[in-house]
Amino acid sequence: MFIKAGLITLALLLPAMASPVTEGLGTRVTFDKRDGITTQDGWFDHKRAVELVVRDRNKHRQNMINLERNMGREAFNEGAEIMPLANYSELAPHDKRQAEPLTDEAGDQYWAGTIAIGTPRQNFLIDFDTGSSDLWVPSVNCTSAYCSKKDKYNPASSSSSSPKNGEFSIQYGDGSTVSGPVYTETVAVAGITVKNQYFSPVDTISPSFGSEADDGILGLAFPAISNLGKSPWFNTAKSEGAVKNGVFGFKLAKSGSELYLGGTDSSLYTGAIEYHPVTGSGFWQIKGASILIGSNTIQSGFQTIIDSGTTIIYGPPNAVAAFYKNIPNSQVYDSTNGFYSFPCSSVPSNVAFSWGGNTWTISAANFNFGRVSATQCIGAIAGQDLGLGKNTWLLGDSFMKNVYSAFSFDANSVGFATLK
Ligand SMILES: *[C@@H]1O[C@H](CO)[C@@H](O)[C@H](O)[C@H]1NC(C)=O
Ligand SMILES: *[C@@H]1O[C@H](CO)[C@@H](O)[C@H](O)[C@H]1NC(C)=O
């Protein structure tokens, strides 16, 4: 059973102080979070984790295909490539822990809030994804079981719908694609209404989406990785003047999560936001990162992509192996998918990333994906080549939950601040 818990609060805030990219009135979307990788009784859900690895790999494979098509190969990071399609049946775990009972909500690890499409409004529960750039929701033509619990868009009951040429299609490794026609529509998020937004009402979704509470995805990354090759929703909001500032901010937490559109919500963080310039053209990518354990720098000088649509933190397999060498009594748990375990009695609470300013620590709770035996637990950092570049890490929610994060198109930068 899934509870559609996303809700919108429209709030007028006092102008934020200090930093030039934080001022202005914005609106907030609040939403709920349930973890999918850890079962309610604290076990690592290996099968679900591998489903997510496959999805993350194929999502970023598609991003690279889109980037090549939109910008050419010269936009690739050094060593980046279009990886082969990842295939769940080849990567699936075969260990006995699969019998561990799952809770009803275990499949739902996304941050979901409500958006409205069409005139009159049709509501959808959406995963806001800083790691992709397209908007899709199921359409009335999605009649498979995977769509049975979803809200479905019907263009026939909207006076603002307009069919366009082309086809939207993202391949997933579970033997299916998410695909559908292309439309423009009026799309409202938290009181910010955008007209003529390109999106896809999809008629097929892949099985791994079927079990989730959210209906679709709203991509918040750059136009360069758009599959539709069109302006993503937030960029359209900025160009149409629906938001004054091209800045949004995330707080991701077990409860009280919020996406703030058109600025940052200074009631949620203390101190200044530490901004770093975006490198490259498609992703919220910043360079010069280090990973530390306590005061020891384990790796440094790498690129990082900040991806709210991904739970796991991925690094290059060799770098991640070197990292776990510094976690006492850690060992490889699943070499195919890059997961490591360590003693549950000593979950690291001092793993941190830094971009030369503050060190941003991952709490023990956020580092621990759950137990796989009486004594061993799985870490949130996995070794995996996603094709994003040879020295590139992808920081998902397990990192983002520890900080307030700000994404500025205006200043072309990503920033972090200390959560209140
Ligand atoms: C649904 O399918 C019908 C028949 O193929 C097609 O005419 C219609 O445009 C489709 N609607 C959407 C939203 O894809
Ligand atoms: C995945 O791998 C299995 C086993 O090798 C193969 O039978 C299947 O066709 C593959 N599926 C896809 C979508 O590539």
Task: Kindly summarize this structure in a few lines.
With 420 residues, the protein is mainly beta. It has seven helices and 25 strands.
Strand order of the largest sheet: 1-2-11-10-24-25-12
Distinct helical segment count: 7
Second CATH tier, the architecture of the largest domain: Beta Barrel
Number of strands: 25
Cα radius of gyration in angstroms: 20 Å
How much of the sequence is in beta strands?
Answer: 35-45%
First-last Cα distance: 33 Å
- Overall structural domain count: 2
Uncertain regions spanning at least 5 consecutive residues: 1-24, 96-110
Here the CATH topology of the largest domain equals Cathepsin D, subunit A, domain 1
Fraction of residues in helix? 10-25%
Bound molecules: 2-acetamido-2-deoxy-beta-D-glucopyranose
Biggest sheet, open or closed, and with what strands and sense? 7 strands, antiparallel
Structural class: mainly beta
Cα shape:
globular
Q: In the CATH hierarchy, what is the superfamily of the largest domain?
A: Acid Proteases
Disulfide bonds: 142-147
Organism: Trametes coccinea (strain BRFM310)
Keywords: Aspartyl protease, Disulfide bond, Hydrolase, Protease, Signal
Family: Belongs to the peptidase A1 family.
Task: Give a written overview of the molecule.
GO terms for molecular function: aspartic-type endopeptidase activity. Keywords: Aspartyl protease, Disulfide bond, Hydrolase, Protease, Signal. Belongs to the peptidase A1 family. This protein is mainly beta and 420 residues long. The protein folds into two domains: 188 residues, Acid Proteases (Cathepsin D, subunit A, domain 1, Beta Barrel), CATH 2.40.70; 153 residues, Cathepsin D, subunit A, domain 1 (Beta Barrel), CATH 2.40.70. It is built from seven helices and 25 strands. Strands 1-2-11-10-24-25-12 form a seven-stranded antiparallel sheet, with no helix packed on it. The chain has a seven-stranded mixed sheet with strand order 19-18-13-14-23-15-22. Strands 3-4-9-5-8-7 form a six-stranded mixed barrel. β24 and β25 form a beta hairpin. The longest helix has 26 residues. It is globular, with a radius of gyration of 20 Å. The N terminus is likely disordered. The chain binds 2-acetamido-2-deoxy-beta-D-glucopyranose (2 copies). One 2-acetamido-2-deoxy-beta-D-glucopyranose binds next to α2. The site of one 2-acetamido-2-deoxy-beta-D-glucopyranose has 7 residues, from β7.
